[in-house]
Protein backbone atom coordinates (compact mmCIF):
# COMPACT_ATOMS: atom_id res chain seq x y z
CA UNK A 1 0.00 0.00 0.00
CA UNK A 2 2.79 2.36 0.97
CA UNK A 3 4.45 1.57 -2.33
CA UNK A 4 1.28 2.27 -4.26
CA UNK A 5 0.99 5.60 -2.61
CA UNK A 6 4.58 6.48 -3.42
CA UNK A 7 3.86 5.70 -7.04
CA UNK A 8 0.91 8.01 -6.94
CA UNK A 9 3.01 10.74 -5.37
CA UNK A 10 5.61 10.32 -8.06
CA UNK A 11 2.97 10.63 -10.76
CA UNK A 12 1.68 13.80 -9.19
CA UNK A 13 5.19 15.10 -8.82
CA UNK A 14 5.96 14.80 -12.48
CA UNK A 15 2.61 16.10 -13.54
CA UNK A 16 3.40 19.32 -15.26
CA UNK A 17 0.57 21.36 -16.57
CA UNK A 18 1.51 23.54 -19.44
CA UNK A 19 -0.88 26.45 -19.34
CA UNK A 20 -0.95 29.24 -21.77
CA UNK A 21 -1.70 32.40 -19.86
CA UNK A 22 -1.40 35.60 -21.83
CA UNK A 23 0.22 38.20 -19.63
CA UNK A 24 -2.03 41.07 -18.74
CA UNK A 25 0.48 43.65 -17.53
CA UNK A 26 0.02 46.85 -19.47
CA UNK A 27 3.71 47.69 -19.74
CA UNK A 28 4.27 44.47 -21.60
CA UNK A 29 4.01 45.98 -25.03
CA UNK A 30 3.82 43.28 -27.64
CA UNK A 31 5.40 39.97 -26.84
CA UNK A 32 3.13 37.44 -25.20
CA UNK A 33 4.95 35.05 -22.91
CA UNK A 34 3.82 31.49 -22.64
CA UNK A 35 3.78 30.77 -18.92
CA UNK A 36 4.25 27.14 -17.90
CA UNK A 37 3.16 25.76 -14.56
CA UNK A 38 4.50 22.75 -12.67
CA UNK A 39 2.92 21.33 -9.53
CA UNK A 40 5.24 19.10 -7.50
CA UNK A 41 5.28 17.29 -4.17
CA UNK A 42 8.20 17.17 -1.76
CA UNK A 43 9.14 13.80 -0.31
CA UNK A 44 6.93 12.78 2.62
CA UNK A 45 7.51 13.94 6.19
CA UNK A 46 5.79 12.35 9.16
CA UNK A 47 4.37 14.41 12.00
CA UNK A 48 2.99 13.50 15.41
CA UNK A 49 1.60 15.74 18.16
CA UNK A 50 4.26 18.16 19.42
CA UNK A 51 6.90 17.15 16.87
CA UNK A 52 9.12 19.72 15.18
CA UNK A 53 10.20 18.48 11.76
CA UNK A 54 12.90 20.27 9.77
CA UNK A 55 13.80 18.27 6.68
CA UNK A 56 16.32 19.00 3.94
CA UNK A 57 15.32 17.55 0.60
CA UNK A 58 18.00 17.66 -2.10
CA UNK A 59 17.74 17.45 -5.87
CA UNK A 60 13.98 18.05 -5.77
CA UNK A 61 11.74 18.22 -8.84
CA UNK A 62 12.19 21.52 -10.61
CA UNK A 63 11.70 22.78 -14.17
CA UNK A 64 14.74 22.22 -16.35
CA UNK A 65 16.50 24.32 -18.95
CA UNK A 66 17.31 27.98 -19.39
CA UNK A 67 14.22 29.65 -17.92
CA UNK A 68 12.93 32.73 -16.12
CA UNK A 69 11.04 31.95 -12.91
CA UNK A 70 7.77 33.86 -12.63
CA UNK A 71 6.36 32.46 -9.39
CA UNK A 72 7.09 29.97 -6.62
CA UNK A 73 4.62 29.20 -3.88
CA UNK A 74 3.86 26.23 -1.67
CA UNK A 75 1.67 24.79 1.06
CA UNK A 76 1.63 21.80 3.37
CA UNK A 77 -0.93 19.12 2.54
CA UNK A 78 -1.84 15.78 4.11
CA UNK A 79 -2.03 12.30 2.60
CA UNK A 80 -5.46 13.00 1.07
CA UNK A 81 -4.17 16.16 -0.59
CA UNK A 82 -6.07 18.47 1.78
CA UNK A 83 -4.50 21.73 2.99
CA UNK A 84 -3.27 21.34 6.57
CA UNK A 85 -4.41 24.27 8.75
CA UNK A 86 -1.76 26.18 10.73
CA UNK A 87 -3.36 25.31 14.08
CA UNK A 88 -2.49 21.68 13.34
CA UNK A 89 0.65 22.01 11.25
CA UNK A 90 2.42 25.29 11.84
CA UNK A 91 4.64 26.16 8.88
CA UNK A 92 7.66 27.74 10.50
CA UNK A 93 9.23 28.14 7.05
CA UNK A 94 10.06 26.52 3.79
CA UNK A 95 13.02 27.72 1.72
CA UNK A 96 14.34 26.89 -1.73
CA UNK A 97 18.07 26.99 -2.48
CA UNK A 98 19.96 26.58 -5.72
CA UNK A 99 23.26 24.74 -6.10
CA UNK A 100 25.58 22.91 -8.45
CA UNK A 101 26.25 19.26 -7.68
CA UNK A 102 28.75 16.86 -9.17
CA UNK A 103 26.88 14.75 -11.74
CA UNK A 104 25.98 11.37 -10.26
CA UNK A 105 26.45 12.62 -6.70
CA UNK A 106 23.69 11.45 -4.35
CA UNK A 107 23.18 13.76 -1.38
CA UNK A 108 23.05 11.81 1.88
CA UNK A 109 19.61 12.06 3.51
CA UNK A 110 19.07 14.48 6.36
CA UNK A 111 22.45 16.19 6.18
CA UNK A 112 22.50 19.92 6.69
CA UNK A 113 23.65 21.89 3.63
CA UNK A 114 26.88 22.92 5.37
CA UNK A 115 27.67 19.24 6.02
CA UNK A 116 27.79 18.36 2.30
CA UNK A 117 31.31 18.15 0.95
CA UNK A 118 32.56 21.21 -0.88
CA UNK A 119 34.04 19.04 -3.60
CA UNK A 120 30.55 17.74 -4.49
CA UNK A 121 28.32 20.76 -3.94
CA UNK A 122 28.65 24.47 -4.74
CA UNK A 123 25.94 26.70 -3.25
CA UNK A 124 24.58 29.53 -5.35
CA UNK A 125 23.21 32.22 -3.10
CA UNK A 126 20.93 35.12 -3.96
CA UNK A 127 22.37 38.60 -4.53
CA UNK A 128 22.29 39.85 -1.02
CA UNK A 129 23.70 40.28 1.32
CA UNK A 130 24.17 38.19 4.43
CA UNK A 131 27.46 36.48 5.22
CA UNK A 132 28.29 33.00 3.90
CA UNK A 133 25.20 30.82 3.44
CA UNK A 134 22.90 32.84 5.71
CA UNK A 135 19.56 33.67 4.03
CA UNK A 136 20.88 32.60 0.64
CA UNK A 137 17.56 31.22 -0.59
CA UNK A 138 15.87 32.17 -3.85
CA UNK A 139 12.40 31.73 -2.35
CA UNK A 140 11.04 31.21 1.14
CA UNK A 141 7.95 31.92 3.21
CA UNK A 142 6.33 30.82 6.46
CA UNK A 143 2.77 30.70 7.73
CA UNK A 144 1.82 33.46 5.24
CA UNK A 145 2.44 31.17 2.29
CA UNK A 146 -1.17 30.56 1.19
CA UNK A 147 -2.30 34.15 0.72
CA UNK A 148 0.83 36.12 -0.16
CA UNK A 149 1.23 37.30 -3.76
CA UNK A 150 4.48 35.95 -5.22
CA UNK A 151 4.21 36.69 -8.94
CA UNK A 152 7.18 38.26 -10.68
CA UNK A 153 5.30 40.78 -12.81
CA UNK A 154 5.43 41.80 -16.47
CA UNK A 155 8.44 40.89 -18.58
CA UNK A 156 10.66 40.38 -15.50
CA UNK A 157 11.95 37.00 -14.37
CA UNK A 158 14.55 35.28 -12.19
CA UNK A 159 17.02 33.73 -14.61
CA UNK A 160 18.19 30.18 -13.81
CA UNK A 161 19.49 27.17 -15.70
CA UNK A 162 21.60 29.37 -17.99
CA UNK A 163 24.49 26.92 -17.71
CA UNK A 164 27.00 29.74 -17.49
CA UNK A 165 29.61 29.19 -14.83
CA UNK A 166 28.68 25.56 -14.19
CA UNK A 167 31.99 23.78 -13.55
CA UNK A 168 32.80 20.78 -15.75
CA UNK A 169 31.04 17.65 -14.51
CA UNK A 170 28.51 19.58 -12.42
CA UNK A 171 24.80 20.28 -12.90
CA UNK A 172 22.26 22.67 -11.39
CA UNK A 173 19.97 21.33 -8.66
CA UNK A 174 17.52 22.66 -6.07
CA UNK A 175 17.10 22.03 -2.35
CA UNK A 176 14.00 22.38 -0.23
CA UNK A 177 14.01 22.84 3.55
CA UNK A 178 10.60 22.40 5.18
CA UNK A 179 10.22 23.20 8.86
CA UNK A 180 6.80 22.29 10.26
CA UNK A 181 5.59 21.96 13.84
CA UNK A 182 2.67 19.69 14.75
CA UNK A 183 0.78 21.61 17.44
CA UNK A 184 -2.09 19.16 17.99
CA UNK A 185 -2.61 18.81 21.74
CA UNK A 186 0.27 21.06 22.82
CA UNK A 187 0.17 22.83 26.16
CA UNK A 188 1.15 26.28 24.87
CA UNK A 189 0.68 26.86 21.16
CA UNK A 190 2.54 30.20 20.89
CA UNK A 191 5.43 28.74 22.91
CA UNK A 192 5.76 25.81 20.50
CA UNK A 193 5.55 27.93 17.35
CA UNK A 194 8.10 30.41 18.78
CA UNK A 195 10.39 27.49 19.67
CA UNK A 196 10.64 28.29 23.39
CA UNK A 197 13.44 26.23 24.89
CA UNK A 198 11.45 25.41 28.05
CA UNK A 199 8.54 24.06 25.98
CA UNK A 200 10.92 21.76 24.08
CA UNK A 201 12.95 20.98 27.21
CA UNK A 202 16.12 21.87 25.33
CA UNK A 203 19.14 23.23 27.21
CA UNK A 204 21.94 22.38 24.79
CA UNK A 205 22.50 23.05 21.09
CA UNK A 206 22.94 20.32 18.45
CA UNK A 207 26.66 20.07 19.15
CA UNK A 208 26.03 19.56 22.87
CA UNK A 209 27.10 23.04 23.99
CA UNK A 210 24.96 24.79 26.64
CA UNK A 211 22.69 27.48 25.19
CA UNK A 212 24.05 31.04 25.37
CA UNK A 213 22.90 32.96 28.47
CA UNK A 214 19.53 34.61 27.88
CA UNK A 215 18.63 32.40 24.90
CA UNK A 216 14.94 31.65 25.52
CA UNK A 217 13.81 30.44 22.13
CA UNK A 218 14.52 30.12 18.43
CA UNK A 219 15.65 27.55 15.89
CA UNK A 220 18.28 26.04 18.20
CA UNK A 221 15.47 24.83 20.49
CA UNK A 222 13.22 23.25 17.83
CA UNK A 223 15.60 21.27 15.60
CA UNK A 224 14.36 18.28 13.62
CA UNK A 225 12.97 15.70 16.03
CA UNK A 226 12.42 18.01 19.04
CA UNK A 227 9.10 17.54 20.87
CA UNK A 228 7.01 20.35 22.31
CA UNK A 229 5.23 19.69 25.60
CA UNK A 230 1.75 18.18 25.23
CA UNK A 231 -1.31 18.51 27.45
CA UNK A 232 -1.31 15.67 29.90
CA UNK A 233 -2.82 12.51 28.47
CA UNK A 234 -3.10 13.83 24.91
CA UNK A 235 -2.71 11.17 22.30
CA UNK A 236 -2.80 11.65 18.55
CA UNK A 237 -1.86 9.57 15.53
CA UNK A 238 1.11 10.04 13.24
CA UNK A 239 0.26 11.73 9.95
CA UNK A 240 2.02 11.96 6.61
CA UNK A 241 2.52 15.36 5.04
CA UNK A 242 4.04 16.87 1.90
CA UNK A 243 4.97 20.31 0.69
CA UNK A 244 3.03 20.87 -2.52
CA UNK A 245 4.83 23.55 -4.50
CA UNK A 246 3.83 25.34 -7.66
CA UNK A 247 6.42 26.82 -9.98
CA UNK A 248 5.63 29.11 -12.91
CA UNK A 249 8.17 30.00 -15.56
CA UNK A 250 8.74 31.11 -19.12
CA UNK A 251 11.48 29.97 -21.46
CA UNK A 252 14.38 32.37 -21.46
CA UNK A 253 14.42 34.90 -24.30
CA UNK A 254 15.86 38.29 -25.08
CA UNK A 255 12.57 39.92 -24.11
CA UNK A 256 12.80 38.78 -20.48
CA UNK A 257 14.47 41.29 -18.16
CA UNK A 258 16.36 39.57 -15.30
CA UNK A 259 15.77 40.57 -11.68
CA UNK A 260 18.08 39.99 -8.73
CA UNK A 261 16.84 38.57 -5.42
CA UNK A 262 17.89 40.44 -2.26
CA UNK A 263 17.01 39.49 1.31
CA UNK A 264 17.66 42.22 3.88
CA UNK A 265 17.72 41.24 7.56
CA UNK A 266 16.81 43.66 10.36
CA UNK A 267 19.38 41.97 12.63
CA UNK A 268 22.24 42.69 10.20
CA UNK A 269 24.89 44.96 11.66
CA UNK A 270 27.11 46.02 8.78
CA UNK A 271 30.81 46.50 9.45
CA UNK A 272 31.98 48.79 6.66
CA UNK A 273 35.68 48.31 7.47
CA UNK A 274 35.56 44.51 7.22
CA UNK A 275 36.78 42.86 3.99
CA UNK A 276 34.23 41.90 1.30
CA UNK A 277 32.28 38.82 2.28
CA UNK A 278 32.64 39.50 6.01
CA UNK A 279 30.84 42.83 6.17
CA UNK A 280 27.51 41.37 7.27
CA UNK A 281 26.37 39.70 10.44
CA UNK A 282 22.80 38.53 9.86
CA UNK A 283 21.49 36.72 12.92
CA UNK A 284 18.20 35.80 11.16
CA UNK A 285 16.28 35.64 14.46
CA UNK A 286 15.83 38.00 17.40
CA UNK A 287 13.72 38.32 20.54
CA UNK A 288 11.06 40.89 21.27
CA UNK A 289 11.11 41.59 25.01
CA UNK A 290 7.93 42.38 26.86
CA UNK A 291 7.93 46.18 27.18
CA UNK A 292 5.29 48.87 27.38
CA UNK A 293 5.45 52.58 28.18
CA UNK A 294 3.24 55.61 28.06
CA UNK A 295 4.69 57.18 24.92
CA UNK A 296 4.92 54.17 22.62
CA UNK A 297 2.50 51.71 24.14
CA UNK A 298 3.64 48.13 23.64
CA UNK A 299 5.69 48.46 20.48
CA UNK A 300 9.05 46.96 19.63
CA UNK A 301 10.81 48.82 16.87
CA UNK A 302 13.97 47.42 15.31
CA UNK A 303 15.95 48.72 12.38
CA UNK A 304 19.13 48.15 10.39
CA UNK A 305 21.05 50.15 7.81
CA UNK A 306 22.29 48.12 4.87
CA UNK A 307 24.25 49.39 1.87
CA UNK A 308 23.35 48.05 -1.58
CA UNK A 309 26.53 47.60 -3.68
CA UNK A 310 24.50 48.08 -6.85
CA UNK A 311 21.06 49.56 -7.23
CA UNK A 312 18.24 49.24 -9.72
CA UNK A 313 14.48 49.37 -9.91
CA UNK A 314 12.37 47.67 -7.26
CA UNK A 315 9.90 45.40 -9.07
CA UNK A 316 8.49 43.51 -6.07
CA UNK A 317 8.83 43.68 -2.29
CA UNK A 318 7.50 41.72 0.69
CA UNK A 319 8.46 41.39 4.35
CA UNK A 320 8.53 38.23 6.45
CA UNK A 321 7.34 38.59 10.04
CA UNK A 322 6.19 36.11 12.68
CA UNK A 323 3.17 36.21 14.99
CA UNK A 324 3.05 39.52 16.83
CA UNK A 325 4.40 41.36 13.78
CA UNK A 326 2.75 44.70 13.01
CA UNK A 327 4.55 45.73 9.85
CA UNK A 328 7.84 46.37 8.14
CA UNK A 329 9.07 49.22 5.96
CA UNK A 330 12.06 49.65 3.68
CA UNK A 331 13.38 53.22 3.32
CA UNK A 332 15.86 54.81 0.96
CA UNK A 333 18.78 56.92 2.20
CA UNK A 334 16.67 60.11 2.06
CA UNK A 335 13.89 58.47 4.07
CA UNK A 336 11.52 57.82 1.15
CA UNK A 337 9.47 54.64 1.46
CA UNK A 338 10.52 51.96 -1.03
CA UNK A 339 8.00 49.40 0.22
CA UNK A 340 5.79 48.83 3.22
CA UNK A 341 4.51 45.33 3.99
CA UNK A 342 2.07 44.38 6.73
CA UNK A 343 0.83 41.05 8.06
CA UNK A 344 -2.79 39.94 7.74
CA UNK A 345 -4.07 37.76 10.57
CA UNK A 346 -6.64 35.05 10.03
CA UNK A 347 -10.10 35.17 11.55
CA UNK A 348 -11.50 31.66 11.19
CA UNK A 349 -10.61 27.98 11.34
CA UNK A 350 -10.06 26.94 7.74
CA UNK A 351 -6.65 26.66 6.06
CA UNK A 352 -5.61 30.09 4.79
CA UNK A 353 -7.65 31.97 7.42
CA UNK A 354 -6.52 30.55 10.78
CA UNK A 355 -7.32 32.91 13.66
CA UNK A 356 -4.26 34.33 15.42
CA UNK A 357 -1.78 33.38 12.69
CA UNK A 358 -0.12 35.50 10.03
CA UNK A 359 -1.90 34.17 6.94
CA UNK A 360 -0.63 36.73 4.41
CA UNK A 361 1.77 39.62 3.97
CA UNK A 362 0.83 42.59 1.83
CA UNK A 363 3.24 43.12 -1.06
CA UNK A 364 4.54 45.99 -3.22
CA UNK A 365 4.39 46.03 -7.01
CA UNK A 366 5.69 49.51 -7.80
CA UNK A 367 5.18 50.70 -11.35
CA UNK A 368 8.53 49.74 -12.96
CA UNK A 369 10.80 52.77 -12.91
CA UNK A 370 8.99 54.54 -10.09
CA UNK A 371 11.09 53.14 -7.20
CA UNK A 372 14.82 53.33 -7.84
CA UNK A 373 17.77 52.43 -5.61
CA UNK A 374 21.07 54.15 -6.42
CA UNK A 375 24.37 52.26 -6.60
CA UNK A 376 25.87 52.30 -3.12
CA UNK A 377 22.69 53.60 -1.48
CA UNK A 378 22.21 52.80 2.19
CA UNK A 379 18.73 51.45 2.91
CA UNK A 380 16.98 51.21 6.28
CA UNK A 381 14.85 48.18 7.14
CA UNK A 382 12.37 48.72 9.97
CA UNK A 383 10.39 45.95 11.70
CA UNK A 384 7.64 46.49 14.26
CA UNK A 385 6.26 43.91 16.68
CA UNK A 386 3.73 44.24 19.47
CA UNK A 387 5.45 43.76 22.84
CA UNK A 388 2.66 43.05 25.32
CA UNK A 389 4.46 39.71 25.80
CA UNK A 390 7.78 38.08 24.97
CA UNK A 391 8.18 36.83 21.39
CA UNK A 392 11.23 34.61 20.93
CA UNK A 393 12.97 33.78 17.66
CA UNK A 394 11.07 36.26 15.49
CA UNK A 395 12.30 37.46 12.10
CA UNK A 396 12.35 40.76 10.28
CA UNK A 397 13.28 40.12 6.66
CA UNK A 398 12.66 42.17 3.56
CA UNK A 399 12.70 40.33 0.23
CA UNK A 400 13.00 42.50 -2.87
CA UNK A 401 13.40 41.88 -6.60
CA UNK A 402 15.57 44.46 -8.33
CA UNK A 403 15.92 45.00 -12.09
CA UNK A 404 19.03 46.78 -13.30
CA UNK A 405 17.30 47.80 -16.52
CA UNK A 406 13.62 48.45 -17.15
C1 LIG B 1 14.05 17.33 30.24
O1 LIG B 1 15.39 17.02 29.90
C2 LIG B 1 16.15 16.46 30.95
C3 LIG B 1 17.57 16.23 30.45
O2 LIG B 1 18.02 17.27 29.68
C4 LIG B 1 15.50 15.17 31.43
O3 LIG B 1 16.22 14.67 32.55
C5 LIG B 1 14.05 15.40 31.81
O4 LIG B 1 13.42 14.18 32.12
C6 LIG B 1 13.30 16.08 30.67
N1 LIG B 1 11.95 16.41 31.08
C7 LIG B 1 10.88 16.08 30.37
C8 LIG B 1 9.57 16.51 30.93
O5 LIG B 1 10.95 15.44 29.34
C1 LIG C 1 35.04 45.39 11.60
O1 LIG C 1 35.98 44.73 10.78
C2 LIG C 1 37.32 45.03 11.08
C3 LIG C 1 38.21 44.39 9.99
O2 LIG C 1 37.92 43.02 9.84
C4 LIG C 1 37.65 44.53 12.49
O3 LIG C 1 38.99 44.83 12.81
C5 LIG C 1 36.70 45.20 13.48
O4 LIG C 1 36.91 44.67 14.77
C6 LIG C 1 35.25 44.99 13.07
N1 LIG C 1 34.38 45.78 13.93
C7 LIG C 1 33.37 45.25 14.61
C8 LIG C 1 32.56 46.20 15.41
O5 LIG C 1 33.11 44.07 14.57
C1 LIG D 1 9.33 53.72 25.21
O1 LIG D 1 9.65 52.51 24.52
C2 LIG D 1 10.34 52.71 23.31
C3 LIG D 1 10.45 51.37 22.59
O2 LIG D 1 10.63 50.31 23.45
C4 LIG D 1 11.70 53.34 23.63
O3 LIG D 1 12.41 53.55 22.43
C5 LIG D 1 11.46 54.66 24.33
O4 LIG D 1 12.70 55.22 24.72
C6 LIG D 1 10.61 54.47 25.57
N1 LIG D 1 10.25 55.79 26.11
C7 LIG D 1 10.33 56.09 27.40
C8 LIG D 1 9.89 57.44 27.79
O5 LIG D 1 10.75 55.26 28.23
UniProtKB/TrEMBL annotation:
Secretion signal, residue range per the UniProt entry: 1-26
Q: Where are the transmembrane segments?
A: none
Q: Which domain of life is it from?
A: Eukaryota
Q: Which UniProt keywords apply?
A: Signal
Q: Which InterPro entries match?
A: Stress_up-reg_Nod19
- Report whether Signal shows up as a keyword of the record: yes
- Protein name as annotated: Stress up-regulated Nod 19 protein
Organism of origin is Malus baccata
